[in-house]
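Write out C-alpha cells for HicB family protein.
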Amino acid sequence: MSALSLRLPDSIHRHIKELANKEGVSINQFIASAVAEKVSAIATEDYLRARSERANKPAFQAILAKVPLREPLPGDEL
C-alpha cells in the first residue's frame, strides 16, 4: 500500500469527516472507497463505450423486429 499526500479545502475535509463518522469508517477508508467507486465508474464507461463500437446495428434491429408489438405492462409506460 502506498501513501498519498492530499490537499483539500477545509470545507470538503469537514464534509468528508462528517460522512466518514456517519458511515462509521476512518477518513482514509472513506476516501479510498470514494476513489475506488470513481475508478470503477470510469472503467465501466470505457468498457461500455468499447462494446458499443463493436455493435452490429443491423443485427440489433433484426432482433428487435422479432419482438411482438403489444401494450406495455402497467407501470412500464413512457
